């Protein structure tokens, strides 16, 4: 159920994100900003089943809108143009981004009331932790 992800989530921790950004090919200057940014994640679901994921920070706001299991074109916060598919797998919201023959996965799940986002590129895994705003 996507509904359990709905709400505004505030980032409280980010581990290994610099290594993950390096692994996907993000340049130094953008990584510096990415490491300092603590975005809020806002998840909504519309009546027609379209899911909206908005990442909001003082630096940049990005938004993707999608239906589960339907591929779409995404321009990421670091300006990669990816073909993305989001699916529900075992209670996790799994976002697969493909570009230039590469692929990365972002797995989001709710654990102990927190939203845990695992960013996976090969053997590099970053973990970003969010708590729900009241």
Automatic annotation (TrEMBL):
One matching Pfam family: Lipocalin
Stretches assigned to the Cytosolic fatty-acid binding proteins domain: 7-24
This protein's record includes keyword Transport: yes
Keyword annotations of the record: Retinol-binding, Transport, Vitamin A
GO MF, one annotated term: retinal binding
One annotated GO biological process: eye development
UniProt xrefs under InterPro entries: Calycin, Fatty_acid-bd, ILBP, Lipocln_cytosolic_FA-bd_dom
Annotated function: Cytosolic CRABPs may regulate the access of retinoic acid to the nuclear retinoic acid receptors.
Similarity comment: Belongs to the calycin superfamily. Fatty-acid binding protein (FABP) family.
Record-given protein name: Cellular retinoic acid-binding protein 1
Species in which this protein is naturally found: Gasterosteus aculeatus aculeatus
